[in-house]
Amino acid sequence: MSIYKEKGLIAPDVLPVAHALDIEMKPPSSLGLGIRRADNTSKDPLVHITSLQSPRILKTHLSWDILSSNIGAKAKIIHCIRNPKDVVCSYYSFLHKLKLLTPDTTWNRFFDYFINGNVLYGSYTSYMRKWYPYRNLANVLNIQFEDMKENLENNVREIAQFLDIKLTEEQITRISKANTFDHKKQEAGKGHVLYRLGKSGGWRSQLTVEQNEIMDMYIKTELDGMDDLKLKYGD
Asked: Which residue, 90, 104, 108, 154, shows the most beta carbons closer than 10 Å to its own?
């Protein structure tokens, strides 16, 4: 949205709810779909999507098989991926803060759940396998969390080009500074569940030696044939 605002395609004072929509699963059910809006109200997804002002920005963690029948060729998809070692650590913290885990769900137990795909949204590798065949479509841009941490300006430049939006270097710098982890965390306020460490490679201080070995085998077997993704694991 920052790119659209910087270019004047969205007015600076317009609330995100006018253009943006989150489409997610309703916890704890893995079946029901729901919407989380900026004003914390809910509405039928299709009805609300058609009422959004252009440009429309939809954010979701849903897999390709759920979305594909509803995505037209004109829709531009920015697919952000992150290595599974950091994902499991971040995911546990996120669900714990939201109190969506039972009291007996320890870190070790959650790690086992994750490896076996027994978490909300299911298996990480199943999700990746469903997206993988479509990664090179003209309307799909793949970016990595780790790349954004390493050089956010390059990613802003790449996203703008993908969206056919021309930006000056000054605009790219301004957008990048406004979207760093530290800036967004400060903007959201202390204790916000969406913001934890904001770094890549944090798994090294949380995974045990055994868990890391299990994860290495999990990646090797379950993501076999996807080497071109070139997942990065942080410093």
From this structure: 90
28 preceded by a cis bond (ω within 30 of 0): yes
Q: What length is written for the chain?
A: 235
Residue 127: partners with Cβ closer than 8 Å, 6 or more residues away: 63, 121
DSSP code for 231: -
Q: Decide if 79 is catalytic.
A: no
pLDDT at 184 over 70: no
Query: Is there a contact between 103 and 206 (Cβ–Cβ < 8 Å)?
Result: no
CA distance 223 to 87: 15
124 SS3 class: helix
Q: Kindly report, residue by residue over 133-163, the tens digit of the pLDDT.
A: 989 989 999 999 888 888 889 999 999 999 9
Q: pTM to 2 decimals?
A: 0.78
Exactly one of 61, 79, 96, 192 is catalytic; which is it?
61
Tokens of 79: 């697919």
- Tokens read off for 218: 């999990």
